[in-house]
Amino acid sequence: MSTDHSDLGSRTSAGFLVALVLSLTFVAYSGVIRYEFVLDDTALIVENPVVHSWRFLPRYFTRSLWGFENPNLPGSYYRPVFSFWLRLNHMLFGLNPAGWHLTTLGMHLAVTLLVYFLAARLLRERLAAIFAAAIFGLHPIHIEAVAWVCGVTDPLEAALFLGSLLCYLKSRDRELRSGAWMAASLVLYGFAILAKESAAVLPLIIVAYKWLYGSPGERNPGARPHGVRIVRAFQTAVPYLGLIAIYVVMRVRVVKGLTHTMTEMPLTTVFFTAPSVLWFYVKHMVWPFGLSAFYDTHYVTRFDVSNFAVPAVVMVIVVAGLGWWVRRSREAAFAALLLAAPVLPLLNFRVFLEDEIAHDRYMYLPSVGFAILCALGWRRLAFGRFRIFGQPGIQVLLTVMIGGVLGVATAYQSVYWADNLVLYSHGLKVAPNNTLAKINLANLAVKRGYYAAATNLYQQVLERRPNFWLANYNLGYAYYKQGKLEEAERSISQATEANPLNAQEFLALGTIRAERGRPEQGERDIRRAIELAPDGANNHYALGLVLKARGDLSGALSEFKAELANNPEQSATREQVAEIEARIHSAEPQNPRNHRVPVDKFSPGQH
């Protein structure tokens, strides 16, 4: 039963209700504006010279996202548009996190508005579309994508993805200039796949829409032969597939492949693990409580009743229920595809690090389909004589109740993202066995001088994964900060053996060996770091200090100038250049000196 002709279905009233949904969404998430940078924000924003100057703009398209740290390490993140977004925010706000959080929240509000437009187009009912926007905007599963600055990759992708889809739908309107709308759709899609890889599923969505709805004005597309419908559907997607082909060429050239395996595992492990991960996502969609940045999601390597059979049966029931629904409603079929298509690539667990196979932010784009499905269900509740503001009372009460619960749950659970200490401590409460939560909390303990607590956490990780390079490296850093150079050198040496392509490890190892009175070895290790990452932060600076301590002022000056070329804002390097140039001009003797080298320009690794 449509309510579009009621008072609340008018354009003015609908506009007011949309504004109300956006306002409530802002209020629910407004606490994030006061939060600090957390997780990868420090590495990708604070310590990343690439986003501090426009002169690095071409590099966004020729390096992976983490290429500034080590261009030799394989990476699966090719996201030039995201890097551009970081640069734009740095230009506007510097390192003030409040501005960054505000633009991230603004992007989420923009996506919420686009969800309304898409739902209104599909459902042809403004009130149902408003309900869908409320579900999407207020849902706590989006906390990770909104409260974490670098989580904006998902709202950024979703905004471009939905914008492209809506422009494609506009191009089907006969009274409009379809060519202009199609061009806009293609441009937005090109930006979407350069924002995040999962946007590549859009052509599948467009093929499905053409299959379900046929050509503009066609009343019964199902009457056409299946072969004709398939051909016409794929013809529509050809321009988008052309953009994917261009993207694939660019991606392969930059990251040396479509994807890279981060965790080796047999296909049987992927098969046995998939049901539990899918059930994890379903639970968090339906019951978004107890959320965290970290979860204990483990691989399932064999048949197991609780970890495989039970979630598999539940997922079969869920899929069967959706199958029953989509056979009776093309709107439900399209929404179900919006939900399912972006999830399928997430089942390739090989591209994730251990303990990283499930995150709430992965559901940002799929939740658009979930919200529209909820609106379809809500629309069927238009029965009974009880009315509120002229609308079926059960619809109004359900909207208020669900919106209130979701909004409060979002506001309450977002506080765990206020700073790293709260985030990591809460993460370990939710997932006491999560490796990365322990490492990140230990890193924070090192930063605050709690070395014993940090060492204990690192050793807990190494008991479970003795060859994990990140734990060995960070344990070495903790020893270094305590002045235990022998132990530090041993731990970081183990890290370089486990992961010989990480420049930061060799920078640390060279620093420690130079400080232990072996500058020749230190120089060799730091040169290896430069070989791995020629423009890595502090690599040339560290080598300059080692050469300066050995009396090679001209060599040191060359390295310091190379550091300034990569990081012109580093005041310590400018001071070194001024000092050495003054010494050279005064003809001061260049006598080798092997005293302790105060480099201390490496930091603990984090993920």
List keywords for this structure.
607 residues; mainly alpha; Serine Threonine Protein Phosphatase 5, Tetratricopeptide repeat; globular; disordered N terminus
CATH topology of the domain at 466-585: Serine Threonine Protein Phosphatase 5, Tetratricopeptide repeat
Which runs of at least 5 residues are low in confidence (pLDDT < 50)? 1-7, 590-599
Overall spatial form:
globular
Number of strands: 2
Largest sheet geometry: 2 strands, antiparallel
Q: What is the structural class? A: mainly alpha
Proportion of β residues? under 5%
Helix content: 55-70%
Radius of gyration: 27 Å
Instruction: Compute the separation of the termini in Å.
Output: 50 Å
Give the number of helices. Answer: 25
Task: Describe the structure in your own words.
By secondary structure, the protein is mainly α. The chain has a domain at 466-585: Alpha Horseshoe (Serine Threonine Protein Phosphatase 5, Tetratricopeptide repeat), CATH 1.25.40.10. Helices cover 63% and strands 1% of the residues. The chain has 25 helices and two strands. Strands 1-2 form a two-stranded antiparallel ribbon. β1 (387-388) and β2 (391-392) form a beta hairpin. α13 (330-340) runs antiparallel to α14 (366-379). The longest helix has 30 residues, at 226-255. The model is unreliable at 1-7 and 590-599 (pLDDT under 50).
